[in-house]
Every structure is written in C-alpha cells, then in structure tokens.
Amino acid sequence: MSAVVVRPVPGRSRPYQFPSFERMTLPNGLELIIAPVRRLPLVTIRFVLDVGARQEPRDIAGVASLTAAVLAEGTERLDAGALAEEFERLGGSLSSYATWDATHVRTTVLSSRLEGALALLSEVVRKPAFAPREVDRLKEERLAELLELKSEPRGLADEKFSSFLYKQSSRLSIQEGGSQRTVRQLSVNECREWHASQFAPSATALVIAGDVDVDKVMKLTSDGLADWWSPPQAPSGVDDTPDREYASARLLDRPGAPQSELRLGHVGLRRDHPDYFAVVVMNAILGGVFNSRINLNLREKNAFTYGAFSSFEWRRDAAPFLVSTAVATPVTVPAIREVIAELVRIQSGPPDEDELSLSTSYLDGVFPIRFETTDAIAGALASLRTLRLGNDFYDTYRENIRAVTADDVMRAAQRHIHMDRLQVLAVGDRAQVEPALRDLNLGPTSIVGDDDE
Amino acid sequence: MATPRAALPIQTSRLENGLLVTLSPDRTAPIVAVNLWYHVGSANEREGRTGFAHLFEHMLFQGSEHVAANEHFELIQRAGGTLNGSTWLDRTNYFETVPSQQLELALWLEADRMGRLLPAMTQEKLDTQRDVVKNERRWSVDNQPYGSWWEKLPALCFPPSHPFHHSLMGSMEDLSAASLDDVAAFFRAFYTPDNAVLSIAGDVDESEVLTLVDRYFGWIPRGNGRPALGAMDVSTTFGTALREVVEDDVAVPRVFVAMRTPVFGSEGYYAASAIAAILGTGRGSRLHQSLVRERQLASAASAFTFDLAKGTDLLVIDATARPGVSVEALEQGIGDVLDELRDKGPRAGELDRVLAQTETEFVTSMQGAGDRAEQLSRFATYYGDPALLNEQVARYRAVTDHRIGAMGSDRLGPDNRASLVYVPRNGVAA
C-alpha cells in the first residue's frame, strides 16, 4: 500500500432539517415553543423573558443581572440551600442570567424528570424569595467582579471598548452588569420592583426542547402556568447611536504588560437590518474563520499574535462591531496598522470567489453541527423570540447564506464598516506604545483610566 | 432512578500497523466526528525542550506532503466542519467534526500528516509558529491574572524529576531553542500509527468505514516503539502540607489546594470524583454553601479533578477571596470544609444528589459527536478499551458513602494538601 495522494471528493450530502417546533400562546400571553428531539432521554427547559439590560434605567444599571442571579437564591417556599438541593435531586443545575435583550432561566434534566423540573423552574421565575442577605451577597460579588476586572486586561478591554462606543447618557455606555456606582445603588427593593414590573407572562416564552411529547407539555404548562398573570410591560427603547461621529484612539496604561489587548470598531447595526446575511458572510471573510484575512495576516504572516478575530454582535439594538486581538507589546502599532489595512481592503473591492465560497460553504455546512444538543436547540428557539425572527429563519438560513454574492460582501463592507468613526482601544504599556500610537494619527488620542464609568 | 437506556454502540479494531480504531455509529444527524489521540504530551519532552509537544502540535497545521500550510483549516472549514487540536501532559489530540459526506477528507488530511509531515517542514514555518506560541504564552499565562496557576500547580505537586513537573507551555528560552531536527526526531518517535488512536463517531456506514480507514492509514509504517516515559509513580499523599505563595498583579487573593487522588479510570477515581462534586460542583456544593453563601469568605469556589491517568490524579479546589478577606482566613475556611468531609463523611442524601447530577452531565455530554469521539479516544488510549465509556454511569453509581468516607480519610488530610496561594503584588488585598 502507499499514500493516497489524490484528495477525496465529498460524497452525496444527506439532508438536514432544523428540528420542527410548535409555537402557541396561552390566554395569559405566555408563549410556548416546543421542539420534540428524540435522540437521548434529555430535555432542556428554558424560560426566556423580554427583560434585558437594554430597558434598565441608567441609574440602576445592573438590576436585570442582579435580579436574574437572585432567582437562583431561593423561592418563597425554599431557601437558597434547599432550592439548590432540589435541583440537584432532579439531576439538574439551574442557570439564570440576563443579557442586553433578555433574562434566561434554564436547566437540562433527564426527560423522566421533566415534570418536577418544570414545576421548580416555574416557581423560580414566579415566586423568588428576594432574601436581603442573598441579594446583598450577590451585589458584593458583582462589585468584587468589577474590582477583579481591573487586573484582567482581556475582560477590561472588552468591557471598556463597548462602553466607549455609546453616548454617555445612554444605558449602553455602562457595561451589561452595571458599574461600581450603579450596583451600589441596588438593594432588595430595586430587585423586587424590577421583578414585579417586568416579569409578566406576556413578556415570556417557555422553550422546551428534547425527548418530550407536545401534548403532555401543553397540559403541564396550562395546568401550572395558566394562573400566572401580571400586567404587560410598557414598551421601551434605548439610545443606540454612536457617541463619536469621528475616529479616535484611547490607551489604557498597564505598565510593563508583555502584550497589548487591542479593540478596533464602532457601533454596528441592529439585528433586524436587511443586510444581516451579507454582513455575516463579510465578517467571516474579514475575521470570522481561521483562514480569514485578519487572522492570516496578523497570526500566520506576521506572527504578531495567537489569534485575531472580528465580530458583529447581534442584538435588538445596534451592537458593537469589533476586531479583537492581543499582540506582543513592541508590535502594537504595526498590528493596528495591519488591521486598518484589512478594513480598508475589504471595502475596496469584492472578495475573490475562493474566499467567498470558503465562508459561505463553512457557514452553510457547519449549520447542523451547531444544533447537536437540546440546549443549543432551545437557545436557537429562544433567539427567535428575543430577536423577533421569523419562524422560517433556521429553515431558510442556509439558502440565504448561499445567496450572498461577492458584490453583496463589498457593499456590506462599504455600508457597515465606518473608517470615519473607527474607535481604537489599546490596553498595554503606555511608555512603549504611546508615541507610535500618536504618530498613527487615528484622530484625537487620549489616555483613559480603568474606572468603570 | 432514571429510565435505563441502551449503551452506545462501540466497535474496536486494529490495523496491521498498530493503529487502534474505534467506531460509534449514530445516524440521527448527518454529522461525523474524527478524533485522533497521540499518546504523547509534555511529559515526553526532553530536558531543555519544555513546551515542545505543544509547539509541535502547531506544526501539524503547517501542512504535510500533499497539503499546504494552513490548508488543513481551509479544507475542513470549506467542508463545513470544525476542527482543532490540543496538547496535554500525556496526550495530544486532533479533531474534526464534519458533514458526513466529508468523512474521507478528514481521514485523508489526518493520514497525510501522520504519514508525510516532514517533507513540508521548513525553518520559516517553525519560526512563525514559535512566535505564535510565544504569544499564546503571553496571552494565557504572562498577561493574565493568576495565569501561571496551571504551570505552578503541577510544579508544586510533582517532584522535579517527574514528567508532569515542568510547564506544558514551556519557557521562552526552551521555545527559542527548538529546531527542525527536534521536529523530525519527535515526529519519528511519537507520531506513529502504533502510538495513536483514531475514533470515529456519528453518521458512518459501518460496512465501509474500516475499508476507508485502511485505505488512508494502512500504508503508514509502524514506529520503532515509543520511548519510555520517566518514572511516573509517586506516593499516594504528599506526606506533608505544601504551600507556595505567589505575588501577582491581581486584585484579590486566590487559593488552589491540590490533593493526590487515584488515577483516572481506576477504582478509587470515581469516589474521588464524587468527592470533587460534593465539595465543589454547583450552588449546592459544600464549598459554595459554606465559603460563598454562609461565611462569605469567597466570591467563587469550586473543585475538580485533573483526570490524570498516570502516577496520581489531582483533586483541586479553586477559591477566590472576597475583597477584604485575608488569604489565611480563606485557607482556614477551605481547611474546615475538607476536615468536615474527612471526619464525618457525606450527609444523608448528599451522594444521591451528586450522582444524579453526574449522570445528567454524562448523558448531556454524549449528545455531540465530537465529545463522544473524544471520550472513546480517551478510554482507548489509557486503557485500550473504548467500551469503558458505557460503564461510566454504573461505576459512579457503585460509589457508596462508605467508599467516600474511606477515600476522605486517606486523601483529604493535612498531609495531602498542596496550596498555591496568589496574593496581590503590593501585599495588601484591595
């Protein structure tokens, strides 16, 4: 025998369909999204509520995160320890958190324990204890996290960069979980009020994915949740316009740091923008896959970094577009220059067919691999609700990706990458970085501190 | 108790050149995972070449005779697949998950680099990857608070002569010293079919797949036998309390406490693993209940096992102090939790709760083809028997309060605790 030198060609592909699901609304406004997936005897139960940091008053930024965390610390019936043990007995663990757009409360258990887990999760959402001691403790833990963040360059760069992008008066200029100042304002009262005013069945979807029977789930939920009523929330919005209409650079000093954490970008676009698919493909070519332009340039050609990536965050509001990397201190400014060159290049002409097809066939082909678990399927279904996507979004995703052309990519780059308001943040050794950074002339260049507002 | 379920189908065979092949078909989704474990890791490095096993892993993405540099990534991503590799103390793995019609591509790519890596190696590629790895070191260790813990803890827990003692990521000096000759020697010694396991899980045609594997891998010559590792055995406990203090650019203290426990997959491992869960998995665990919730000494506390299969395993507690709490108070708190479990054993119902969680986690982790293939390779590499995967739930269920108690008195005492203590550089907690 000898080595096979001829590259194998793919066989015929087998069809894949995103799991079918049913969506219905109970008389109290609670939405049910149920996807039977019968591979392993598992079920993921996930409450998703339209209760995100985006609708917080700026002064109590962090209340959504704190309230979500407090849900796990006891109900009117069970104290924190007893509740944790009850989930363990079911073989599950409870996860509850808030994002910019939503509050999520979820668990995964063996499907034989669906009934008990659903009842317990419902209790957690509807009847939290709000024990002052636990609220105070979680608040102190959040403050500790913010303190620790100051010594963590990667997280610090992420949080600061996103906050810099928005107007000072906007909720979006403070990180998702709140700042030292706003979290200190919070107490059990704010959490209670937040829960009472925001947690309504009409703001809630219950997503169940796994080895379940739709009729049985219907019956369980109407038996257990039909009596839940509270007034619908008032609609809310947030100012997602950029703070600066001009380019600028910021440097956060970390004396002696061996690497600089770099972030370049600006406020991107809302999830409901019609250019969504073109932007997703454009980003893959720019910095989304391993062999993207930015990673090949910064890592494989220049060896400046272990990795460099770009991303568009997708939320209801206009969310950050950013390029993210960590580079050896002496090459900080050359690395910024290379990233900028790639941003300019992708706007200056269509990608060649090879680059385009790498990204579209990756996004198309990897689609089934994204949904191997009940939790991933439930998460995708939760996004339908949270991001207001159409029911056919997953069924048509692959053809929409394949339909993006090279010209679409160029136009998406021209429309949605804004060099004239590019923001740059370097977290690194000021003494070594500042002179060359100023010479780059990226617009007004300032030194910023590590305070969180 | 949950409903019993059918075991995963698992088949094992061996090619003439020694490659161990494991298969676990599952045709519910058109996805297949290919996973290769080479039985080599940082433990196999020679003096003066720390970090080489990991640098070598990077070189495996730099092409082989019929594949250009980075083309492996290009071809797999173009095929709609995901891929990566990772290096550990005693193994290195390479894996792809692809749409099932692309199985042959993944096999061909893995075979070309197993059989014909060296013709593609150049000084320029080595120099580039050396710099990439140095940046990986800066990113994950040097410029990351507490980032050195995962090289300092093994250094504290294993004697200097032990193969697990030195840094997996390696020193900058040793990385600089690595040469193309080292690449060739390492490849010939360790990247051979008889030192590897190939696992395939997912949507495959059982009647065809072994023919394919033989076509792509069968021609690769067997190696000359794997050079022996240094002596792995250590005593079951440290014999005395060990403690190292590290001053770092951190805001608050953080404490790691490691205990020697029975190796992964052994009889005692399951009791030690259940102890880790009792101590530190989730909000119901003792460390969380005691240190985070009741005494408020820590803002986070967890426990886990390293899952080492040679010499000894390590059960590790990881706790971060609340601002204002001294490192001594936190260490005392951890000691109290350990003492209580050692002296009194599990509470009523505690073990059942932990085992229920463990079972859910196990079944959950079997959903992904890539995870299944990884576990098959793990059991095949360490024990020659991937079917052990089907026994894991039963082996956890066989743990009793009595066995936990015995493990606790043997391994949780002060003579078996190695503490790695991070404190803010200026000596004062903020």
Neighbour order of strands in the largest sheet of chain A: 1-2-6-3-5-4
Largest sheet data of chain A: 6 strands, mixed
The CATH class name of the largest domain in chain B reads: Alpha Beta
Q: What is the H/E string of chain B?
A: EEEHHEEHHHHHEHEEHHEEHHHHHE
Please trace the helix and strand order of chain A, writing H or E for each element. Answer: EEEHHEEHHHHHEHEEHHEEHHHHHEHE
Measured distance between first and last alpha carbons of chain A: 67 Å
Tally of structural domains of chain B: 2
Strand content of chain B: 15-25%
Please indicate the count of domains of chain A. 2
Low-confidence stretches of chain A: none
The class by helix and strand makeup of chain A works out as alpha+beta
CATH superfamily of the largest domain in chain B: Metalloenzyme, LuxS/M16 peptidase-like
Alpha carbon gyration radius of chain B: 23 Å
Counting DSSP H or I runs of 4 or more residues, the number of helices of chain A is: 16
Give the terminus-to-terminus CA distance of chain B.
Answer: 48 Å
Q: What is the compact description of this entry?
A:
Chain A is α+β, with helices and mostly antiparallel strands. Helices cover 42% and strands 17% of the residues of chain A.
Describe the secondary structure blueprint for this structure:
The complex is a heterodimer of chains A (453) and B (430).
Chain A: E1 22-25, E2 31-36, E3 42-49, H1 63-71, H2 80-89, E4 95-98, E5 103-110, H3 114-126, H4 132-149, H5 153-164, H6 180-185, H7 188-198, E6 204-210, H8 214-225, E7 248-253, E8 259-267, H9 276-288, H10 293-301, E9 305-312, E10 320-328, H11 332-348, H12 353-365, H13 374-386, H14 393-402, H15 406-416, E11 423-428, H16 430-440, E12 445-448
Parallel strand pairs in A: 2-6, 7-11, 7-12
Antiparallel strand pairs in A: 1-2, 3-5, 3-6, 4-5, 8-10, 8-11, 9-10
Helix pairs in contact in A: 1-4, 1-7, 3-8, 9-12, 9-15, 10-11, 11-15, 12-14
Chain B: E1 11-14, E2 20-25, E3 31-38, H1 52-59, H2 71-78, E4 82-87, E5 92-99, H3 103-115, H4 123-142, H5 149-157, H6 172-177, H7 180-190, E6 196-202, H8 206-217, E7 242-248, E8 254-261, H9 267-280, H10 286-294, E9 298-305, E10 313-321, H11 327-344, H12 350-365, H13 369-383, H14 392-397, H15 401-411, E11 418-424
Parallel strand pairs in B: 2-6, 7-11
Antiparallel strand pairs in B: 1-2, 3-5, 3-6, 4-5, 8-10, 8-11, 9-10
Helix pairs in contact in B: 1-4, 3-8, 9-15, 10-11, 11-15
